[in-house]
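B., you asked whether I could sanity-check this one before it goes into the benchmark set. Here's the sequence:
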Amino acid sequence: MENPDQTKSGDEEKHVTRKLGGLKTMPFVISNETFEKVASFGLLPNMILYLTNEYHMSIATGANVLFIWSAISNFMPILGAFLSDSFLGRFLVIALGTVTSLIGMSLLWLTAVFPQARPPHCDSPMTESCVKANSAQLAHLFGSFVLMSIGAGGIRPCSLAFGADQLYDPSNPKNQRVMQSFFNWYYASVGLAIMISITVIVYIQDKAGWVVGFGVPVGLMFISTVMFLLGSPLYIKLKPNKSLFTSFAQVTEAAWNNRDLVLPPMESGGAIWYFHKGSKLITPTEKLRFLNKACMIRSPEDIDTDGRALNPWNLCTVKQVEELKALIKVLPIWSSGIIIAVTISQHSFPVLQANSMDRHLIPGGLKIPAGSLGVFAMITLTIWVAAYDRIVVPLLSKFTKRSQGLSLKERMGFGLVISCVATAVAGLVESKRRAAAIRQGLADNPYGVVHMSAMWLVPQHCLIGLAEGFNAIGQIEFYYSQFPKSMASIGVALFTLGMAVGNLIGSLIVSILNKVTKTHGRVSWVSNSLNKGHYDYYYWLLTALSVINVFYYLLCIWAFGSTESKNKVEWDEGDGMEDELEADDHAKGKGSPIVFPH
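And here's what the prediction gave me:
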């Protein structure tokens, strides 16, 4: 039975008892997140090799499977956040997510353990006509992917906030420093965990095979589950509250229900608008005026004696309306991040390219796993985040006369431009690799190793990491700057949604290219043989789409900026400098490593 002191609600009750929570819970919370990251992100880099070699999928099909898996994994945190905020609470969502991830990884491990779970072995699936996986085998494999995605949807949106719940203590004068230390340690552990997963776990898969390579993540996930559940008696477990998603739905329905009402002139005053006592938002803005009908008071009977709306699905506050407007307003700029999400999510093809190249650091020396080259993007991103805050901003502020150096719009724009350069470099390198393969007589040998160092792939990984450091982090900070603190989680949700849509677009591009370019007996650009296909053309297509997207982004920020000053909203925020500092801390990089998972 749950300890009644563990579950609190409301700002005053939230942390009444300090016997629960505190630093003693940190080993359980952080170890859960760390082991989950090492386990889950260690599976993705080499998965294209598992699908093509063991399940005999074509490269295009395997890439599509991974794009869709990543899309589901990015959609699920939004559902997890909604369930946590509205119904189940963070502890239960994390616990269910952890167990579900463990089951999913165990199912994937079983596909490697039991030969019956996959098609019969085939020596050369790229050149021979091998037996394909049957429906039951594919159901087993895809079921494991779905369960892992569902588990990630429970852990990722709630883990950071749940850890903060354990430490937040307004009565402690040093609480801000404690929270800052927690964020630093949390993000350091996440970044380290992902780097370990991309290097160590991938190396184990290359050297020890799939049974051990998938078994180690299962063991780590088991440790993660046990550690989190062991700390259960120590946790502060907050009750779920109303979700912003519910609020948005209420505004939408109320505006529709009141669609026959005639909007009064904006200068008519605030007498007809519904707002809570003490709110700064007493009159809605002119932008998206049709939503203003959601906060129009039709008659005094709409409000009860304590000033609350009798039916929140027919009457909403001005604040609720403006929150939805704020979300709608940033959607065009959000949509400009979809194409760069396609670029960031290029996991499959670079691994296959690296697998066909010389991966020795020095002749006869250490051979880098093909799936580990992505660590260079991670290293670049991490270095850039630190360097930008400590070195670049102070230098730029002298020229821009702005304390933050580049504006958030400029940072996002630079990220888009760098992503164009990244895909162009990828196209040039692939063109050089393909030419070298043909010159060396490997045109008909998809398994041949080209006498060309895989280090040629490092620049494109570094550029992708730099583009992500500019654009992705800039996106999240931009959303924070446009939303009230109560909508801070929506910023991360928008970013993950953009990644999900980007993955789906990536899958669509590969499918269309594969279908169109192999007509009339031609070889597909994304052929099973890298040396016969034209993956360089694929990268040039991404470059063209990225360049078009830069101009689309410029149009979006022009439209956004032309109305920004006229519709500036003064949000209801907590008073006191401490609140402002905490919000500022989040906006200046505290959320940056959230962009690591894809």
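One thing to flag: Strands lie at 7-8, 237-238, 357-358, 450-453. Otherwise nothing jumped out at me.
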